[in-house]
Amino acid sequence: MDFKAAAKLGHYISKDYARDVFELLVNYRTISASEAASRLNLHVNTAQEFLEAMAELDILSKEQVSEGKRPYFRYSLKTQQISMQVDLSKMERKSSDGIPAMRIRERKDARARFTTGRSGQAISSVAVWTGTGRERKERRINLTTAQGKFLYHLPFPDGDPMTVAEIMTKAGVDETFSAEVVDIFELLECYGVIESPGSKT
Amino acid sequence: MWLLSKLRPETSINILLPAIITLTGLAVLWILVGRVYAWLFVAAVFLIYSLLSFSVFVRTRSAGYLVASLFQLFGFLWIGGAKEGLLYVSDQLLLLGKFGALLFGGWLQILLLTRKMKWRGREILELAALPVEDVTNGFTERPRPVGKVTFSREDVTELARFASKNLIAMPYIEPDRIVLATATMAQSFRHLYPWRRDYSRDTWVSFGSDGQVSVNISQDDYAKYRQSLSFDQLCASLGNLFLEFLEMYRRGEGLQIIDRMNTLRINPYT
User: Fold this and answer.
1) Do the Cβ atoms of A158 and B233 come within 8 Å?
2) What pLDDT digit, counting tens, does each position of B158-167 carry?
3) What are φ and ψ of residue A140, in 5° steps?
4) Helix or strand or coil: residue A19?
5) Which domains does chain A have, with CATH numbers?
6) B141, B142, B176 ranked by CB distance to A119: nearest
């Protein structure tokens, strides 16, 4: 199951009425949205939305039936068990996308506020401004130790750019932390705090 | 040595604040409650300043602050012990106060004029800017690691004592590092009194226990330069300057450090 489907399942299964709907589905051979809604005292749209979502997740099967002129769907369980399994390893960033080789430095007039940690050898948080005019607000990002050391050694706006890998080496950040370093680099690049001169990205 | 200063002239009147506060208080009280209480206020202020100066002497071991403390103490005896005043004790004490205030006041002026009681922030900024020619404003409010150097904590502790005694920088001894925060005469109040300990936004050089040397230059200090000098180079130069001081002090050339700053001939009151 991909993360999006898992999130959808989690969202619906956490509803107050979810257990009651499944109880109906287990005990009725098929059921329509209006039957379920009237039985559980729900709004028909609520029941309809829930059953449709379960059908999209392949937990229910639906069959169109016609009664008179008006067609509608009847739902039945396709499975007696629901399991959610998400492979988190798929989210791991690959370091082969060229970022460690990018030459970077802090952008001039980035208007970011760096707060130094207690040790004095790492940045503990970065505050950046987002939005414009009245929508302008400060976003503070707390950093992990590896990210803090990395940013502490980030070249100044008028300094010579260094590659991500070089900065990590200078900061004494182990390669196993490269994913979290790349993550903060990408985020701060989005906010215009870090630039990669000479790079199109 | 003559050189064109890279710093703007000092415009801060912070150094005059104690005198301004005292004279304002004197004038206001004179009008409101009369001459006797107005001079009593001045005497009390002298006593407070004397205690503060003594606390600074204890912290820095700078002899100038001991002289200042004695001048202010005798000033208190002179002003407070005046015949028509509320604290009058005897003519002898009044005479002692007058003599001591004149003696230590004169001594204090000599110390100020010979830069022995001068906070060296401007000299440090000037020396750091000497090798920097690039003008590419790249100011950022974060420290710059200068590099890893081999030194012992004892070496830096000794340099910190020397820097404090000669008002080159105020040391902050922390478990993992020793920080030397520079200050000009106008900024010196920030570091001197015990209720103010946060130096993080000031100009400083830190010596980490792992050998890491880092530098921070405050926005205020950067704005003191006539031109927007390359911030990266300026920070590196400041770090190198203190590493040079460390090396000179190790070789027993502490006096040469002072001479180097004196040759800049910066106004002793700035």
Assistant:
1) yes
2) 999 999 999 9
3) -105, 130
4) helix
5) 3-77 (1.10.10.10), 93-195 (no CATH)
6) B176
